[in-house]
Amino acid sequence: MTDTIADIKNPALSIDNLSIWYDKNKAVKNVSVEIKKNTVTAIMGPSGCGKSTLLRALNRMHELYDNITTEGKVLIHDDNIYDMSTIKLRREMGMVFQRPNPFPTMSIYENVIAGYKLNGIRLKKKEKDEIVERSLRDVALWDEVKDSLHKKGTFLSGGQQQRLCIARALAFGPEIILMDEPTSALDPIATSKIEDLLVKLKESYTIILVTHNMTQAARISDYSLFMYLGELVEYGKTKNMFTNPKDPRTEQYLTGKFG
Amino acid sequence: MKDKIVLGLVILLSLITISPIILIIGELIMKGYRQISLDFLIQNTPDTYSAMTAIANGERIPGGIANGIIGSLIMVAMAAIIAIPLGVITGVYLYENPGKRMANFTRNISDILQGVPSIVLGLISYLWVVKHITNGYSALAGSASLAIMMLPMIVRSTEETLKMIPDSLKEAALALGTPYHKVIFRVLIPTGFSGMLTGILLGISRVLGETAPLMLTALGSSMINTNITKPTSAMPLLIWEFYNDPNMIDLIWSSSLMLMIMVLLLNIISKQIAGKRR
Ligand SMILES: Nc1ncnc2c1ncn2[C@@H]1O[C@H](COP(=O)(O)OP(=O)(O)O)[C@@H](O)[C@H]1O
Ligand SMILES: [Mg+2]
User: Fold this and answer.
1) Any idea which ligand is nearest the CA of A225?
2) Does B234 score more than 80 pLDDT?
3) Residue A17 confidence (pLDDT)
4) What are phi and psi of B95, to 5 degrees?
5) Where are any strands of DSSP class E within A87-187?
6) ipTM, 2 decimals?
7) At what angle do helices B118-125 and B139-164 cross, to 10 degrees?
8) Contact A117, A110 (CB under 8 A)
9) A190-202 as b/e, with b when 16 or more CB fall inside 10 Å?
10) How many distinct structural domains can be found in chain B?
């Protein structure tokens, strides 16, 4: 199974024996893994192997649905996320979804500070302006939208919308950003902009990126997890995994035998 | 050639479909326009004697339908104030608990309510409100029967509109740590607002023309009445009264025209709002 990675000390996140069921169907099977700070960690694997299911457990998104059960622990700063308030947890763990989903009733400006607004956190106008500008600069969107901050976010192109959604996650000051195939709905140019962005963002954040695109994982991730049928098959430095996979299933996947 | 026949048929069929509404409006305008004037909108209904005199002298019948317009506005507004919050909350509840027994039960009851003849709703409001709350015919009793009529329409449109909002939006809000009730009130309802408003406006335009339940509850009044515990007039009630008075029968056209215009306007506004969303 997984080779433990000796150099991960003081991880951003440790997943300890995590299993997830949809009704009776076990979609994630006893996964244990430690995620290194300030890296991009890719979760790879064929469609249906449980990537999204694993990712969505990390900010307890599954609790929205009655048919999902979760077992195991996830620790950040030695605190189990299942003992925290979801509000605190989700503040530390931003999420970006497969399809851009800006709030259609809100302007670009309001979308960026939506985390504060929706949680009833009052900010001074100056603080808001600063957060909006900083977050939009972080996602390289500021120059494109600075003159239309009060227009609806839904008028932007798909790639711009996705960067807006990343800005919305950043604005709330998370340590970790969860991303579920954030570029799969975008064209190649928008995709490469976002990939460049992720490489830059890892200086300040820890990024966990689900992707079914292994070249994307190879391009931008430092570590990779390979999942198959709900199991964590292999975990290690991306470079090592792509050049020298340890498990035959990883090798088969990387050589295009399935998926 | 074949295309032309099909096209001709389509045009013919659509003409048949729209002809009743055109004929109705045409008829109302032809027969009613002579009565319509500012007075018609701001004066109360005439007494039967002055109407008779005017007819005998070949003059326009004096007076108007202000008592009916104000009464309708008051009763429909009160019905909306009762039905909108209840209907929206119930619709949110149904949306939130799709498979639950209580929710299915509520949805079925709401559907049944939609099919209850309006005269029966009038009777119920008579038994509850007229006999026990206002101790007599009243605008409040009329509003109650209209509110019950609107309720299922609002419940339905709220639930359907919320169902059309993608889950991803709800998840986006939750992923920001938003407490659940705020997700509903600050994200889902604003996002679905225009859809829900469309349902509400259609509901209002439905009850605006209701006559039967008002006969048993609001009764009617020849004066403008703003005391909601007293008998009150309404536009459809006036039309019925005019119909029953040989001296006033000419007024049914102009008052029907006004009612039609109001209903059509509401329909057009709600179509506009619905259209903007797409
Ligand atoms: N909402 C759901 N209800 C039931 N089963 C689900 C649901 N979502 C995913 N699954 C199942 O769980 C497994 C893992 O799905 P998922 O995590 O979405 O895979 P991936 O993201 O790797 O494509 C699949 O077998 C899928 O059919
Ligand atoms: Mg997925």
Assistant:
1) 1
2) yes
3) 97
4) -65, -35
5) 93-96, 176-180
6) 0.91
7) 130
8) yes
9) bbbbbbebbeebb
10) 1
Helix (H) or strand (E) holding B50: helix B48-56
Residue B33 belongs to some domain of the structure: no
Distance CA B234, CA B70 (A): 7
* pLDDT value, residue A1: 43
Task: Tell me, yes or no, whether B10 lies in a domain.
Answer: no
In this prediction, residue B141 has a pLDDT band, given cuts at 50, 70 and 90, of very high
Strand partners, B79: none
Q: Which of A26, A31, A52, A70 to mutate to test the pocket of ligand 1 (most atoms within 8 A of CB)?
A: A52
Tell me the residue type at B44: N
Nearest alpha-carbon partner for A64 in A99, A90, A32, A91 = A90
pTM for the model stands at 0.85
Domain that holds residue B143: 66-277
Q: Within a 13 Å sphere around the CA of B251, how many CA atoms are in the beta-carbon half?
A: 34
Any idea what the CATH number is for the domain that residue B266 is in? 1.10.3720.10
Contacting residues of B for A118, CB less than 8 Å apart? 173, 176-178, 182-183, 186-187
Tokens of B117: 């003849």
Do A94 and B183 count as a contact with CB atoms less than 8 A apart? no
Q: Per the domain annotation, does B3 fall within a domain?
A: no
The order of strands in the sheet holding A231-237 is A79-80, A68-76, A13-22, A25-35, A231-237, A223-228, A40-44, A206-210, A176-180, A93-96
Tell me which H or E stretch contains B180.
helix B180-182
pLDDT tens track for B163-187: 999 999 999 999 999 999 999 999 9
Q: Which residues of A touch B182 (CB under 8 A)?
A: 118-120
The minimum CA-CA distance between A256 and chain B, rounded to whole Å, is 31
Q: Say if residues B218 and B126 touch (Cβ distance below 8 Å).
A: no
* B52 part of a folded domain: no
Nearest to A55 by CA among A238, A139, A181: A181
